[in-house]
Amino acid sequence: MNKNLLLNINSYLLILLPAFLVTGPLLPEIVLLITFIIFLILCYSEKEFKYFNNNFFKIFLLFYLIINLSTFLNFNLLSLKSSLFYFRFGFLSLVIWHCIDKNPKFIKYFFTSLIILLIAIFLDSLIQLIFKKNILSFPISQTGRVSSFFGDELVLGSFLTRIFPLFVALIFLLNISNKKYILPVVTILFLINIFITSSRTSLAMFIFFVISFLIFLKNIRLFVIFSLITLILVSLTYSFNKTGFNRLFVHTFNQFSENNTIQIHSFRHTLHYLTAWKIFKEKPLLGYGPKSFRLNCFKKQFVPNKYIQNNNTFFTNQTAELNILIQGINYDVNGNEIIEKFYNNEVLNFLPILNNTESQKKVYDLTDNFLLFDIYKFNEINKLSSSVVTLYIKNLNSNEDKFIFKNKQNAKFYLNINAISTKENKILIQKNTKYLVNYSEYFNGCNTHPHNFHLQVLSETGLIGYFIIFSLFMYIVYALLINLFKINSKTLNLNNLSAPSIILLIGYMIILFPLFPSGNFFNNWLSISIYLPSGFLLSELYKK
Asked: With pLDDT > 70 as the criterion, what percentage of the chain qualifies?
């Protein structure tokens, strides 16, 4: 067979791979299969084995063996499907490295294709934001999030955040002139596009990357300009897209201060993390296998009951009558998020009820303009007393009915119970009495994955699998620090890395940063977007 023809097929398929990622997982998977087969044919015919005799492939192969061992020890089809064919992602990096070595025009054509794709996405995103539909008639999401060509999949922000470091690295690889003018413009356009997606994690990761990159450039002027532009975009978002502003900032602030406590992650994410930690402790060496979190999270021994109860526990401040503030987050008919105070500072009577199973409902109920909540009095966590206090809260303002239970699946309610003084002859509660509300939006930490790469790998592959991911993260941080402070490394050849290598390493540091929420580590679409830049990084690193 014509080797040049095979090389060109691989090159053009990989050049189009970012565009195929926009269409979903099917086309990228076909590309991975074809390029993998051609790559093996070319390596065998040319006796090119350097792509297999390197640290990257050896470490990847070790990780591949570990996740398959974990799968076979905890056999289930879901894990087997993920682990058995996981090799294709490592080979994606090798195929890209091979194309860069053998095709001198590969990087140029890849960059050109990427520019066309990003321009199309940017213009289409603006159209969807303004006209509520993109050029393919995909509507904007009900929460006001722009998704462009991704349609129902709200991953545009994630895609842009992961492709940006590669795009910047390609500018340096091609040694494009006037970088000091091009880079600020490109950064602003990416920032605008990520802003209108209202993806909070993507925005945080993007800003973190830009700041890290500017630290390496040691350019305070650019840092100040970027900060000012970010503030301007925040103001514009508030003026023209309040739904997006509320999601990016107001909703984030509310999550950070849920239940009147400051917390890094939301109640929902914390439930995922605690569940993953419990699963890890059950099988700490090799875990339960890839994608097994969704199979185990509902099991009784892995439910973080204590955390759920603590976040639904209230204390009285003094001997007095209960005073209740109910706040809700709901959505109006247009899908816009509404934050309303339904009841505030209303003095309410309550009736103690003993052994009344009728009142012991696990969710709210609305009948005849009365909102029913059950509050269980208890002395210690997990030890409920026999008395149940049912609160019948009258809806005094009928005009607020339109916000109540408009969408029960999306509505959220918070109860802040305080005590107020009263001189009337009413039933009083004692100071520092604990009350447990028998309503929680989430009764376990279940989801398809724990929303954190580190905790997912830890719970699904154990310490043995996690050691590779953690070591990789620390290796990247170490390499970046050595190059930032110009430290002489005698043990590792990491000194004076090229600008593209540093940029791509910063990108991977952001992706693997432990505090950022993340997608499913073993998801095929996400794995392709993660492994895609590594082929360029390998090519650059092995030039030394």
From this structure: 69
